[in-house]
Amino acid sequence: MGEVPNDIDLPNFNGEGTKAKKIFEELGRLLPEYGEAICKKVQGVYLFKVYDHGVYNRPTAKSNYAFWLVDLKNGCGSVRAVDKPEPCDLMYF
Questions:
Q1: 13-17, 26-30, 41-45: segment of lowest average pLDDT
Q2: Rounded distance, CA 15 to CA 7, Å?
Q3: What separation in angstroms does the CA of 25 have from each of 4, 9, 17, 58, 64?
Q4: Within 10 Å of residue 30's Cβ, how many Cβ atoms?
Q5: Rg of the chain (C-alpha set)
Q6: What is the rounded distance in angstroms from the CA atom of residue 70 to the CA atom of residue 92?
Q7: Under a CB-based contact definition with an 8 Å cutoff, are residues 76 and 35 in contact?
Q8: Is residue 19 very low, low, confident or very high in pLDDT (cuts 50, 70, 90)?
Q9: When comparing pLDDT for 14 and 63, which is higher?
């Protein structure tokens, strides 16, 4: 796993109002029931950087962002918003 630089800007946006937040919340709701089986197959921890807007889904200089960590490796899995990048197997930006 790569190291996360310490000099990155921290977001002031929690994903509120984005489609991504709804998807992550729904995934988190389903994990208690299906997470163990999913984790056995996936075995990965994923970090997503979600932007609040952009032109043609591309971030702009004015875009705010939030991080979501999806753990599909441990136990029944988990989904949570995080303040900064955390160790993971794969990052999506």
A1: 13-17
A2: 22
A3: 25, 25, 12, 23, 19
A4: 13
A5: 14
A6: 11
A7: yes
A8: confident
A9: 63
Nearest to 23 by CA among 5, 1, 46: 46
What is the 3-class SS of the chain, one letter each residue? CCCCCCCCCCCCCCCCCCHHHHHHHHHHHHHHHHHHHHHHHHCEEEEEEEECCCECCECCCCCCEEEEEEEECCCCCEEEEECCCCCCCEEEC
HEC readout, 1-25: CCCCCCCCCCCCCCCCCCHHHHHHH
Write down the pTM of the prediction: 0.76
| Rounded distance between C-alpha atoms, residue 63 and residue 65, angstroms | 7
